């Protein structure tokens, strides 16, 4: 009997003040294992980039999808994260037998799905998805940094550091910010 096709799913970018939340779905190839898969937050940026390339080359299928800042503001960050996950799963070229998601909530899909708390450290396919989602989102923040260098996005990736909040107060809120997030809505409320 053939081995079940498992898809790992994870997201990156729930906490930042700007940009999309990005989700990835990965079906690893058991015949082409990838050494060093781990929770993306535990890896260096260089290791993540190296592994992301291997994941894209060796996986049976992978996809990256997102929900934009406007969708986050309209739906809330949890629902937008689940929507990005749905989009990533739907974009796969192979449909899995089971989807395993990092965390405690599952997207609403027609496939068997289960949530695994800490799954990005326990399930290799979720680790791979974590790495693809993080590297894709980081690349977007680096690109935004080229266009809007005043915010320092390449450094903090949109997270609410004191330097980031200072820059927002000084330069104002750009259109790619999540206006429903408290630090951003406070700055908008305080601006003339």
Placed side by side, the strands forming the largest sheet appear as: 3-2-1-4-5
Number of domains: 1
Main sheet specs: 5 strands, mixed
Instruction: Report how far apart the termini are.
Output: 67 Å
CATH architectural group: 2-Layer Sandwich
How much helicity do the residues have? 40-55%
**Number of discrete helical segments:** 8
Q: For the record, what is the CATH homologous superfamily label? A: Ribonuclease H-like superfamily/Ribonuclease H
| CATH topology name | Nucleotidyltransferase, domain 5
Described by the principal axes of the CA atoms, the overall outline is: globular
Backbone CA Rg: 17 Å
**What CATH first level would be assigned?**
Alpha Beta
One letter per element, helices H and strands E, the order comes to EEHEHHEEHHHHH
Low-confidence region ranges? none
| Fraction of residues in β-strands | 15-25%
- Helix and strand content put the structural class at alpha/beta
Number of strands: 5
């Amino acid at each position: 009997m053939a081995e079940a096709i498992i898809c790992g799913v994870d997201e990156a970018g729930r906490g930042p003040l700007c940009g999309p939340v990005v989700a990835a779905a990965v079906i690893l190839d058991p015949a082409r294992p990838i050494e060093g898969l781990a929770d993306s937050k535990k890896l260096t940026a260089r290791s993540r980039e190296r592994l992301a390339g291997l994941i894209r080359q060796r996986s049976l299928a992978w996809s990256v999808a997102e929900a934009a800042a406007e969708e986050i503001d309209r739906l809330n960050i949890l629902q937008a994260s689940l929507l990005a996950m749905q989009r990533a799963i739907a974009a796969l070229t192979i449909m899995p037998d089971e989807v395993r998601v990092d965390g405690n909530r599952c997207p609403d899909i027609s496939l068997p799905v289960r949530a695994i708390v800490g799954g990005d450290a326990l399930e290799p396919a979720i680790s791979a998805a974590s790495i693809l989602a993080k590297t894709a989102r980081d690349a977007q923040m680096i690109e935004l940094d080229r266009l809007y260098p005043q915010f320092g996005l390449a450094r903090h990736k949109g997270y609410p550091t004191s330097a980031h909040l200072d820059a927002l107060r000084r330069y104002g809120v750009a259109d790619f910010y999540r206006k429903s997030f408290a630090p951003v809505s406070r700055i908008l409320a305080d601006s003339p």
